[in-house]
UniProtKB/TrEMBL annotation:
This is D-malate dehydrogenase (decarboxylating). InterPro entries: ICDH/IPMDH, IsoCit/isopropylmalate_DH_CS, IsoPropMal-DH-like_dom, TTC_DH. It comes from Arthrobacter pigmenti. Its cofactor is Mg(2+); Mn(2+). PANTHER family: D-MALATE DEHYDROGENASE [DECARBOXYLATING]. It is an enzyme of class 1 (oxidoreductase). Keywords: Lyase, Manganese, Metal-binding, NAD, Oxidoreductase. PROSITE patterns: IDH_IMDH (PS00470).
Amino acid sequence: TRTYVIDSIPGDGIGVDVTDVAMQCVDALAERHGFTVQWRIRDWNSDLYRKTGRMMPVDGIEQLSDGDGIYLGAVGTPDVPDDVTLWGLLIPIRREFDQYINLRPMRLLSGVVGAMPGIEELDIVVVRENVEGEYSQIGGRFGSGTDGEFAVQESVFTRKGVARAARYAADLAAERDGRLVSATKSNGIIHTMPFWDEVVAETVKEVPGVVVDKVLIDALAARLVMKPTSVRTIVASNLFGDILSDLVAGVAGSIGIAPSANLNPERRYPSMFEPVHGSAPDIAGKGIANPVGALWAAAMMLDHLGEKDASKSLTSAFEAALADGIATSDLKGSATTAEYAAEVLSRLKEPAGPQVPEAI
Ligand code: NAD
Ligand code: IPM
Ligand code: MN
């Protein structure tokens, strides 16, 4: 039987709740579709940091390297600085495994209450550059305790890094409506962005049938709120893509429903799947987190593993539950995480309908 080794890192806060739901659903699907998932559960989180001074073991990356994929909940907790939790776990995984594409699809799910009023349709994929750009390690804080104290961080955009993100996004746009929106800020202020535009334009030219429309990030933010149906596929830098993906999720109802796939497209290293949201300390421990983003991310993982039918069963099950009016409080429903999960699990046992959406 087909067996996949998946490293599961529940992390902190609601990361733990939503990962638990996702693993239950994947196990149920595995049984029904005839494959096995061997979970390697990793307790790599803020508690481990408090005990050992590290978010993951020294050889953590090596431990993940022979798996078929990584599934992450979220990390971050109020009493540990975010730079410790993030630079100690999430960012090294993205970088060491060269997961240079962060794919963040969003659709208007049927039954969702709380999407932007007036929206009847929305189908957007944000292709986020995931290992360079604004998220660089060059810089820091200087002159602490003096009047001249300052902080600086250099953005680093490489031709190779921009081109491969643009290429991935253009290929995806070619399968969609042929229109790619490039998020930019090249109106004379940010030095890196004319370079971004140039490399994106050169790259997209090589993909037949795709046209690129560069849109300034500030105007794009407004357009995504006011006319979200006018955009299908977006390519964006690390920081812009981060912001836009929460924005689009908010327009579609909640950041609790947004999934993400951190991909190494060449499959030289494992890819990582996670909800877009964080550890949500404000609702952690209350049992009310929305597991849809985590489930959708799990569906993207199943698709990546080649388990297309299982992936479709999962997306259609979580959407069917929403369509039947079962939802957590972020979507104006009254279900707890466990109640919603039970509804999804029961729908996984039913045969999938004919018209099931793909994970992306
Ligand atoms: P957040 O995404 O955790 O929460 C933002 C808001 O959305 C909160 O009000 C929260 O309750 C709500 N929310 C988020 N996910 C939800 C869900 N599934 N169901 C219902 N409501 C949900 O962002 P934040 O508050 O800015 O960050 C909290 C911590 O998470 C920080 O430490 C941050 O660094 C970390 N973080 C981690 C990741 C990650 O591990 N990939 C991603 C984002 C933020
Ligand atoms: C995300 C998160 C991370 C990011 C943070 C937690 C570093 O917001 O995955 O969207 O900015 O990439
Ligand atoms: Mn984010």
